[in-house]
Design a protein that fits this description.
The chain is globular. It has six helices and 14 strands. The strands form four sheets. Strands 1, 4, 10, 13 and 14 form a five-stranded mixed sheet that branches. β7 and β8 form a beta hairpin. The longest helix is centred in the first third of the chain and has 21 residues. The protein has 298 residues and is of the alpha+beta class. It folds into two domains: 67 residues, no CATH class; 222 residues, Aromatic compound dioxygenase (Protocatechuate 3,4-Dioxygenase, subunit A, Sandwich), CATH 2.60.130.10. It binds benzoic acid and fe (iii) ion. Fe (iii) ion (FE) binds next to β7. The site of fe (iii) ion has 4 residues, from β7.
Length: 298
């Protein structure tokens, strides 16, 4: 049997892909093998350390269930999720520019995170999804256009956030059901408006192996306050993104590296009185405005 010295082991493993029929799979696996072997060589990994890593990955898998995805959290906190999002959006932007581009740049994407729940209720524009939830009221409004500034009517904004204390419905216990999430559709002028709360910063779930990893790295688990949305309409490329609260802590050190400057939005503070949609507010409230821009599908 052929024996491989450490020096040529990497090439020996790569050679075993000679009969792989799927060129993309072969490319990805070959790169994975090369980089993983280079990593082991660079840090001179010990057997005990490799067993610790395997124990960590095993624990990560055991922490996953239908409500919790610790592997995605690991990818998020290592910046891999955001790198994948950013690289793919860059690729799409280059293709868009090669076709002549638009007058303005499309809304930037960021990580989806683990708290998206398909099938949120479809509500009328102007509805309040934050009523009776902890947090200060906030009025969200703006338009959805294409990159030429043409309004996109009947565009869906599927929105979700934690409450004013940073807790998502999925973390509120079995019976909480859907809270602070809904689907809205823009009007004929591409406008949207709804009420919710001003979201607070919060820690990503840190009571599992990823939390232990963060502590050992000397890192905090917090994300700055944000509201998530998927924005999509027929004939346009969808975008999964957030709006970040401009005066939130942790904008400079998001635990999952999701902040993009173009998504940071001031939340204006208002005294009690008549809100822009005519609603009478007897307590102070905030307002945030943001215009989304989608790329027309080729
Ligand atoms: C979130 O923003 O909901 C989130 C994103 C990544 C990891 C954990 C939470
Ligand atoms: Fe979030």
């Amino acid at each position: 049997m052929a024996q491989h010295e450490a020096a040529d082991l990497t090439q020996a493993v790569l050679d075993r892909l000679a009969d792989c029929q799927d060129p993309r799979f072969k490319q990805v696996m070959s790169a994975l093998i090369r980089h993983a072997h280079a990593f082991v060589r660079e840090v001179e990994l010990t057997e005990a350390e490799w067993m610790t890593a395997i124990g960590f990955l095993t624990e990560t898998g055991k922490t996953c269930d239908d409500k919790r995805q610790e592997f995605i959290l690991l990818s998020d906190t290592l910046g891999i999720s955001m790198l994948v999002v950013a690289l793919n959006q860059l690729k799409a932007a280059r293709a868009f520019q090669a076709q002549g581009g638009g007058a303005s740049t499309p809304t930037e994407a960021t990580v989806q995170g683990p708290f998206y729940w398909e099938g949120a209720p479809e509500l009328e524009l102007g509805s309040d999804i934050g009523q009776s939830m902890p947090g200060e009221p906030a009025y969200y409004h703006g338009r959805v256009t294409d990159t030429e500034g043409q309004p996109i009517a009947n565009c869906c904004l599927d929105v979700w956030s934690g409450d004013g204390e940073g807790v998502y419905d999925m973390q509120m216990g079995e019976d909480a059901g859907m809270r602070l999430r809904a689907r809205f559709h823009t009007d004929a002028q591409g406008r949207y408006r709804f009420w919710s709360i001003k979201p607070s910063y919060y820690p990503v779930p840190d009571d599992g192996p990823v939390g232990a990893m963060l502590r050992r790295m000397g890192r905090h688990p917090n994300r700055p306050g944000h509201i998530h949305m998927k924005v999509y309409a027929p004939g346009h490329q969808p975008v999964t993104t957030h709006l970040f609260v401009a005066d939130s802590p942790y904008l400079d050190s998001d635990a999952v590296f999701g902040v993009r400057n173009s998504l940071i939005v001031p939340f204006a503070a208002h005294p009690p009185g008549e809100a822009p949609d005519g609603r009478h507010m007897n307590i102070p409230y905030h307002s945030a405005t943001y215009d989304f821009r989608l790329v027309r599908a080729a």
